[in-house]
């Protein structure tokens, strides 16, 4: 669709738009809610300096804190959803800016809470909790804060660190400005011979070109900029790594990784197990690369040949109404309780389906404890949109079950778990499509979609995680992270992952210099663990194992009532052990074999 024939929101059928009235019946109701929340913010100040006074005072203070957070997030989510449905609407732009101010006031007035709670001696806090019923319910909430105690420094040192936070953020900001604003990428000729200016967005698109000359020019042109600035980029990355290592050290952690994983209470063995297990089965990725080489009929396979589609245009497409039907069929293994939620999502207008003028692009699931878990989409009649729909419904059903089964204080879930629910649904859709469509073209396409997804998420993100950990350790050991050192080691790692069939001595050795995630302090591994957990869950549930299904639903209902790693353990998935990753790689192997067989 071109911009000119995209309709305004008012011209569209309202039954395919989300209904936000259960959150706030009108903008007027939002305004009065806003005034009330702004007034209420002061309530928390009455508890400043008094948290250790008595169990009653502490429980009242926590309830006040939670209540304020709840009000602020209801307002914030309403404003951001309204703003996203049409970003050209000045009323909602203003509303959105207003709630950002409210968030910021909320963080200011509540900033005393955490350090003050941590200052209460452990024994005293335990005794207070033991003698108050409400505090007993809040035990996990309190413990999750209190376990930080041994890594908190005396107040004057905390103040020094806090006031240097802008300095610590310097490397990320410099990299961001270089990468997003200052870099001038060259132009390349597209397949029709037109000059196009390379951008980050276009880079990915052009690497999917079926014209190898376009892919080569794009890859070499894009990387030429990073190579020109490789010494500067080595310094921004080094500075970021040093910041992680420094902060971990001053807070008494053994390593940056220990500090980063401590945030969500994830054992480091989860990380090591991921690297070991994936590392021991890289022959599967090599086999996939070989297959790509023979399908593309290329003797000297390059990294820029990794993204061009193997099979051309998708052989099937669906309307939204058809997609609803398929979704309900595909998610059947999750049982009636789950399907009822999906039906409600369709019938109660949780989903903003189609594109309209000014609407935010892409897709997401968003809501609050008190709202429906809404979904924004920009539906196109395609297989991709169907995958997006079941993905976002996975997030929304997860939110719904969490809200319905947990009190407010535990009514959310951690990032570590979020993508498991959505990716499990994608896996169930893959199973369903493979079962339902006998057509060879469709079978091939769906298998390829799965294999590419797993390659990009499990193999590639594990490669990043391995490199990220390696450079943190090298810096901690005093090794200077020069551009030469980084490139040499990146090249080795790339050769290890992709195998001998592809050239790792090309510009790819500079890939370390352009990945924003290396500035995110041990974040990427969660993409790989999440995808692997989801594939293992889907495999168990699809096999009709009733117990596996109940455990899975238990996970979706558990919110933050336990630490993420314990939630998974309760659901039958021990993420400190290899099994779930092995099971996932078994599925990859099996589908790779099916794919190979279909190509013969
Ligand atoms: Zn997601």
TrEMBL record:
Domain Oligopeptidase F N-terminal: 116-185
Essential cofactor(s): Zn(2+)
GO molecular-function term, one example from the UniProt record: metal ion binding
Keywords annotated in UniProt: Hydrolase, Metal-binding, Metalloprotease, Protease, Zinc
Protein EC: 3.4.24.-
Cofactor note: Binds 1 zinc ion.
Keyword match ATP-binding: no
Domain Peptidase M3A/M3B catalytic: 206-585
UniProt-listed InterPro entries: OligopepF_N_dom (IPR013647), OligoPept_F_C (IPR042088), Pept_M3A_M3B (IPR045090), Pept_M3A_M3B_dom (IPR001567), Peptidase_M3B (IPR004438)
Biological processes per GO annotation: peptide metabolic process; proteolysis
PANTHER family reported in the protein's UniProt record: PROTEASE M3 THIMET OLIGOPEPTIDASE-RELATED, SACCHAROLYSIN
General function of this protein: Has oligopeptidase activity and degrades a variety of small bioactive peptides.
Family of this protein: Belongs to the peptidase M3B family.
Name of the protein in question: Oligopeptidase F
Species of provenance: Ruoffia halotolerans
């Amino acid at each position: 669709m071109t911009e000119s024939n995209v309709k305004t929101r008012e011209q569209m059928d309202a039954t395919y738009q989300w209904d936000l009235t259960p959150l706030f019946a009108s903008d007027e109701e939002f305004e009065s809610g806003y005034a009330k929340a702004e007034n209420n913010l002061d309530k928390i100040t009455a508890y400043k300096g008094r948290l250790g006074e008595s169990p009653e005072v502490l429980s009242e203070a926590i309830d006040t804190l939670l209540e304020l957070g709840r009000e602020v997030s209801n307002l914030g989510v309403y404003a951001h959803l309204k703003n996203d449905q049409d970003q050209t609407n000045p009323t909602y732009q203003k509303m959105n800016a207003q709630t950002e101010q409210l968030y910021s006031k909320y963080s200011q007035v509540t900033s005393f809470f955490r350090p003050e709670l941590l200052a209460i001696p452990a024994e005293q806090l335990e005794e207070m909790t033991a003698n108050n019923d409400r505090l007993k319910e809040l035990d996990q909430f309190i413990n999750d804060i209190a376990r930080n105690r041994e890594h908190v420094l005396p107040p004057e040192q905390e103040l020094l660190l806090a006031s240097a936070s802008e300095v610590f953020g310097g490397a990320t900001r410099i990299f961001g400005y270089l990468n997003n604003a200052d870099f001038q990428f060259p132009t390349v000729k597209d397949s029709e011979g037109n000059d196009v200016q390379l951008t980050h967005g276009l880079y990915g698109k052009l690497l999917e070109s079926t014209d190898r000359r376009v892919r080569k020019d794009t890859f070499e042109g894009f990387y030429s900029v990073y190579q020109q600035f490789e010494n500067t980029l080595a310094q921004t990355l080094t500075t970021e790594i040093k910041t992680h290592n420094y902060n971990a050290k001053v807070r008494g952690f053994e390593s940056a990784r220990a500090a980063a994983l401590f945030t969500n209470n994830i054992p480091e063995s989860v990380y090591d197990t991921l690297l070991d297990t994936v590392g021991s089965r890289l022959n599967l990725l090599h086999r996939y690369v070989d297959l790509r080489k023979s399908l593309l009929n290329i003797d000297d396979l390059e990294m820029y040949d990794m993204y061009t589609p193997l099979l051309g245009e998708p052989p099937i497409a669906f309307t939204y109404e058809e997609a609803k039907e398929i979704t309900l069929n595909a998610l059947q293994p999750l049982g009636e309780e789950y399907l009822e939620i999906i039906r409600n999502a369709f019938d109660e207008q949780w989903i903003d389906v189609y594109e309209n003028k000014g609407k935010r692009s892409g897709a997401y699931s968003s809501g609050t404890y008190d709202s429906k878990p809404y979904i924004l989409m920009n539906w196109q009649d395609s297989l991709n949109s169907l995958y997006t729909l079941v993905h976002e419904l996975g997030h929304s059903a997860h939110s719904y079950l969490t809200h319905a089964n947990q009190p407010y204080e535990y009514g959310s879930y951690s990032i570590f778990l979020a993508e498991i629910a959505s990716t499990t649904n994608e896996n169930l859709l893959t199973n369903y499509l493979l079962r339902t469509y006998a057509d060879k073209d469709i079978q091939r396409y769906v298998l390829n979609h799965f294999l590419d997804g797993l390659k990009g998420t499990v193999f590639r993100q594990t490669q990043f995680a391995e490199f990220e950990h390696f450079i943190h350790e090298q810096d901690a050991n005093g090794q200077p992270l020069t551009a030469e050192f980084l490139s040499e080691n990146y090249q080795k790692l790339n050769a290890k992952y992709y195998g001998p069939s592809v050239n790792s001595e090309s510009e790819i050795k500079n890939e370390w210099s352009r990945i924003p995630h290396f500035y995110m302090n041990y974040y990427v591994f969660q993409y790989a663990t999440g995808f692997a957990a989801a594939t293992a869950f889907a495999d168990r549930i699809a096999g009709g194992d009733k117990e596996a299904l109940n455990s899975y639903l238990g996970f979706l209902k558990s919110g933050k009532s336990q630490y993420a790693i314990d939630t998974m353990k309760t659901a039958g998935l021990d993420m400190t052990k290899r099994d779930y990753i092995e099971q996932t790689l078994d599925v990859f192997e099996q589908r790779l074999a099916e794919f190979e067989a279909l190509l013969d």
